[in-house]
């Protein structure tokens, strides 16, 4: 078995588990670019002790490169857990992160998200870097 056999993908506008990458399509080489990644942009994903997004990872694969580079790893650790019982805790982490990067060339941003019940999900976003 390989990851390709278990990672799911869909249109984020119709599926609540797909990570959404918000980034420009074109940026200038060496300039700072803000990239946001999250789940539940169009359809709310539950955020309960029993059902939640545990983490999102963001990668960059250069256009002519062989390997992807991890840009960010966002962990969401509070889902209403409490000694009083499930969903009685004081905090709920939302599945959202922001990172600022500088890119030296064009490529693809890739994101993976993990739901504690429905597994791994992925999405991608092409980004062109101009001189």
From TrEMBL:
<comment type="similarity">
    <text>Belongs to the desulfoferrodoxin family.</text>
</comment>
<dbReference type="GO" id="GO:0004784">
    <property type="term" value="F:superoxide dismutase activity"/>
</dbReference>
<keyword id="KW-0560">Oxidoreductase</keyword>
<dbReference type="GO" id="GO:0005506">
    <property type="term" value="F:iron ion binding"/>
</dbReference>
<keyword id="KW-0408">Iron</keyword>
<protein>
    <submittedName>
        <fullName>Superoxide dismutase</fullName>
        <ecNumber>1.15.1.1</ecNumber>
    </submittedName>
</protein>
<feature type="domain" description="Desulfoferrodoxin ferrous iron-binding">
    <location>
        <begin position="10"/>
        <end position="123"/>
    </location>
</feature>
<dbReference type="InterPro" id="IPR051233">
    <property type="entry name" value="Desulfoferrodoxin_SOR"/>
</dbReference>
<dbReference type="InterPro" id="IPR036073">
    <property type="entry name" value="Desulfoferrodoxin_Fe-bd_dom_sf"/>
</dbReference>
<keyword id="KW-0249">Electron transport</keyword>
<keyword id="KW-0479">Metal-binding</keyword>
<dbReference type="Pfam" id="PF01880">
    <property type="entry name" value="Desulfoferrodox"/>
</dbReference>
<keyword id="KW-0813">Transport</keyword>
<dbReference type="InterPro" id="IPR002742">
    <property type="entry name" value="Desulfoferrodoxin_Fe-bd_dom"/>
</dbReference>
């Amino acid at each position: 078995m390989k990851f390709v056999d278990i990672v799911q993908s869909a249109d984020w506008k119709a599926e609540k588990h797909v990570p959404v990458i918000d980034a420009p399509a074109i940026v200038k080489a060496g300039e700072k670019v803000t990239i946001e990644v999250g789940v539940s942009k169009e359809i709310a994903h539950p955020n309960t002790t029993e059902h939640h997004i545990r983490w999102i990872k963001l990668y960059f694969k250069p256009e002519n490169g062989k390997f992807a580079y991890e840009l960010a790893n966002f962990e969401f650790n509070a889902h209403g857990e409490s000694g009083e019982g499930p969903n009685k805790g004081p905090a709920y982490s939302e599945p959202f992160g922001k990172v600022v990067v500088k890119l030296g060339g064009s490529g693809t941003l890739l994101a993976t998200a993990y739901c504690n019940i429905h597994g791994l999900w992925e999405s991608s976003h092409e980004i062109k870097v101009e001189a």
